[in-house]
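Example record

The entry below shows one chain as it appears in the dataset: sequence first, then structure tokens.
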Amino acid sequence: MGGFQVLFVALLVTALAFDLSFVDANFSKSMYFNWGAHHSSILGNGDDLELVLDPTSGSGIQTKKAFLFGSIETLIKLVPRNSAGTVTAYYLSSTGSMHDEIDFEFLGNISGQPYTIHTNIYTQGNGNREQQFKLWFDPTADFHNYTIHWNPTEVVWYIDSIPIRVFRNYENEGIAYPNKKGMRVYSSIWNADNWATRGGLVKIDWCSAPFVARFRHFRARACKWNGPVSIDQCASISPANWWTSPVYSQLSYGKKGQLKWVRDNYMIYDYCKDTKRFQGNMPPECFKPQF
């Protein structure tokens, strides 16, 4: 057997050995409704999802499994027209008071006004790391890809493969990082008109209900959480753990350029610049390079 064939077989065996650590499934195979199932649905072959908010309730779905590191992605088409007061959420979270969490939240607005993209990250129960953006397209006209890429080095939020935010691992300098708890994937739509639109000044117009958020092609190319043993298993550098490859340890030059373009033109709030909020006592990661 030639050298190339030997290498190929070795890589295949390695991948199969780690096969149980990966999930690459759709809504019907890997998720279930945790509320509002009476008016929401998984459609077609399990790749399409509709979450509904009406006067009776919102709705939500979550994965059956938890994960530690990998790439979590889905296509989303947000509520059209008057979505003021609604929030569509897509996020990772562990459980308990010391939970970790990585968020995409989409804050609705009145007809003709843009959505606000609200991102946050919690480590050991502490959040308050909000960054907000407007978008360079209409997120209600078509489906767009929203990806959370999470590895032992950094968390990156992507929209249509364009990075909008990075949170790097500075745990060795005393800054907590989400690397020791498995997190499930959640999506939901709910009434947040006490804060979502203009700080709660604009309320939901129930005459516009039902509000429907559409999702498609959910993929969790990630390491399954099997308890504390996964902390080392999912972080180990190996061909199977593709997210630990050096290519994913830092954004490329081109991706950094895309990130700068988004942040220069579409970022509307950064907690690291809100000195009044923190009374000058800024979170330590604000003094560290993230890109």
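Notes for this example: Helices lie at 3-17, 27-30, 229-233, 253-265. The radius of gyration is 20 Å.
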